[in-house]
Amino acid sequence: MDSSLVEIWQAAQGSRFNPTVGKDSQFLVAIFLVLLGLVGFGSFTLNRSFANIALFGIPSSLALAFGVVYMFCAVGVYV
Predict the structure, then answer these.
(1) Which of these, 65, 67, 48, lies nearest to 57 by C-alpha position?
(2) For position 2, what pLDDT does the model report?
(3) Is residue 33 within 8 Å of residue 59, measured between CB atoms?
(4) End-to-end CA distance of the chain, in Å?
(5) Are 57 and 44 contacting, i.e. CB atoms less than 8 angstroms apart?
(6) At what angle do helices 26-46 and 58-75 cross, to 10 degrees?
(7) CA 34, 37, 43 angle in degrees (round to 5)?
(8) What is the pLDDT, as a whole number, of residue 38?
(9) Comparing C-alpha atoms, which of 4, 60, 12 is closest to residue 36?
(10) For 11-15, 38-42, 71-75, which range has the lowest pLDDT when averaged over its residues?
(11) pLDDT tens per residue across span 14-66
(12) Which of 30, 56, 66, 74 has its CA 20 to 30 A from that of 22?
């Protein structure tokens, strides 16, 4: 290992990790992103054109994907 990497690792031991979205608000963020993705997907299906792919299709698919991941984090996956 590089000595600078070891120094960074040891310096980071004392700092606490603070996530961008806290555990208490993950469910609200997930619901918002999933609903935003579904509304965007509905708008895209009403008028499918090449310009609407970049305007509605890609952002709505990303919002839906991130919303599902946040929902997995907030609710948990029980199999």
Answers:
(1) 48
(2) 58
(3) no
(4) 39
(5) yes
(6) 150
(7) 145
(8) 94
(9) 60
(10) 11-15
(11) 788 888 888 889 999 999 999 999 999 988 888 888 888 888 889 999 999 99
(12) 56
